[in-house]
Amino acid sequence: MKKIKLLALCAIVAGFSTSCQKEEIANETQEAALEPTKEQLVSLANLGVNTSDVTIQKLTMLDGTTGNYLVAGDINIPVDGLNKLAELEAVADGNKQYRTTNLVSSGNRNISVIGYTGSGYALTSKMRTALQWAVNNYNALNTSLNFTVSFSASTNADMVVYNNGAAGGGGSAGFPSGGAAYKWIQINQGTDAYSTNVIEHVMTHEMGHCIGFRHTDYQSRQSCGQNTNEGSAGVGAILIPGTPSSDYTDSIMLACFGSNEDGEFSSTDITAINALY
């Protein structure tokens, strides 16, 4: 009897161990599936997105929609929408890119913006002021874009800016698709520790992505203290007329920001926006 009990206990222990191993293998498989494929990385590089630190994350937006996104720094691109974005045009001299071919179409350039005030995701008072200043930055330019901003718990707008509660300064957004501006702009809670001018810089930067602008230094990320150059075959640039072909240290579209930003466009930023819109 004792022997039978001992064998039964061994069977239970063996079964438990086997289950743990299967669970670990399943988890490893799931994690592996969330790593970007080589093909996806090539597509991102051809879009002018730095691929040095890309992950796939499941993100849930304020309206409850959930999906897998390729996350590269402050850029979020839906995995199932990657092939819908046009690649950058190549130029012979290899100048860096500044914009994407995915822009906001002429019929979608009256852009409504909501600064979210709903429970759990509300912008702070400083963030709301900074968003108003960012909208003012764009409306002060002589372009075909016109932004209107309001503050509410609604998500019924072309752009919705909200506090994602994350630590650290910064935010994230995406690129236009189907002729419409990207909708969701997430601002990290940690950004509130900076001055209103710095938050204005972050807001203006993320809005820039939503209307089609890439990082000025996407190839090198020199503003982040890096020196990364993708060097992938076929990765070119769309150099906007009147803008420099080298990384411009005061552009609002640099990949990383400092604690002394004034939140205003540089003269080159203004030239670029006027050229496109």
UniProtKB/TrEMBL annotation:
<dbReference type="Pfam" id="PF12388">
    <property type="entry name" value="Peptidase_M57"/>
</dbReference>
<feature type="signal peptide">
    <location>
        <begin position="1"/>
        <end position="22"/>
    </location>
</feature>
<dbReference type="InterPro" id="IPR024653">
    <property type="entry name" value="Peptidase_M10/M27/M57"/>
</dbReference>
<protein>
    <submittedName>
        <fullName>Dual-action HEIGH metallo-peptidase</fullName>
    </submittedName>
</protein>
<dbReference type="InterPro" id="IPR024079">
    <property type="entry name" value="MetalloPept_cat_dom_sf"/>
</dbReference>
<dbReference type="GO" id="GO:0008237">
    <property type="term" value="F:metallopeptidase activity"/>
</dbReference>
<keyword id="KW-0732">Signal</keyword>
